[in-house]
Amino acid sequence: xxxxxxxxxxxxxxxxxxxxxxxxxxxxxxxxxxxxxxxxxxxxxxxxxxxxxxxxxxxxxxxxxxxxxxxxxxxxxxxxxxxxxxxxxxxxxxxxxxxxxxxxxxxxxxxxxxxxxxxxxxxxxxxxxxxxxxxxxxxxxxxxxxxxxxxxxxxxxxxxxxxxxxxxxxxxxxxxxxxxxxxxxxxxxxxxxxxxxxxxxxxxxxxxxxxxxxxxxxxxxxxxxxxxxxxxxxxxxxxxxxxxxxxxxxxxxxxxxxxxxxxxxxxxxxxxxxxxxxxxxxxxxxxxxxxxxxxxxxxxxxxxxxxxxxxxxxxxxxxxxxxxxxxxxxxxxxxxxxxxxxxxxxxxxxxxxxxxxxxxxxxxxxxxxxxxxxxxxxxxxxxxxxxxxxxxxxxxxxxxxxxxxxxxxxxxxxxx
Length: 416
Hints:
The chain is an alpha+beta fold. It folds into two domains: 3-19 and 230-415, Enolpyruvate transferase domain (UDP-n-acetylglucosamine1-carboxyvinyl-transferase, Chain, Alpha-beta prism), CATH 3.65.10; 22-227, Alpha-beta prism (UDP-n-acetylglucosamine1-carboxyvinyl-transferase, Chain). It is 31% helix and 25% strand.
């Protein structure tokens, strides 16, 4: 199994280009199923989750050709409404294909999705939304069977603003008869990006980015090309890498408006920021100040950045408190940080972090994508060498992470 070997203690400095968004690319790739023909996507991140989504597209009859970060998806030969179980179980985001396939065929067969084990992430909200659209759902031997004579517009209220459920309902309702009104919808920028893609292809969707989304059914969608938005979590990760090492890091090809809660907390921690139209430059103090974090749905502080800030705050001056309000099992990484010298106690959904002056490199194990990224962040400031196992989790969501960190001056390599 491959490992990261990181020698810490180097101040990071330089410029890093942010890749296309993982969490926008996956639903947009799923949305191509609604189009019969060729879709060209630009700024697609070259990461494992995207490769898995392409495997699923090929598995249901689609054709995918790739050159660097440009992808051409030909959906004209897709001829099945069944998503292969072995591919569904590879990642959580595969469930987003269910809405697209239902929208195309009025039916879909699929199993429960896989992915990182960061807490209960049921798909009940997705299924309730499908039922409101007139879809009959039954479960047989772990397979979810969805069927409808026709899909009709309706009013749907989400009990919680779930990103995945919002995306799935929009996809299922795109080609429905009539208008669907979705309330308490998630507001994430990645949903806005998916809706921009759909509208460019001929959909009629209003209100993305607000808690009320209106989907007016259309007859068909058309072939287009589309440029995927930059990854806000990757942007935040590299800024934190600069902050924890006392460095000076500039991110480019980023959207500062998407990362305002992250920037606010970095400024509160005494980092100096210079914000441009598509870039952010961070200059870190010698030691950051403790801050408190509460994760919330967008536009609040993103849960995907919680573990990464957990690593940062483990070295802060003072005591920080992190409250995780989205997923109940997202503190697994803390045990590994404590093995490196962090002083973190977990009480339910709260982590109390007493900043440590010394972090020591050791052997640690990643257990999920963002928790793995937190270990990389911690290793960058640690004294000595850190060895990180299970790096496949990290590679699921970060394109060229080794090369990008090296370009900033980090001492990191992969040991096969």
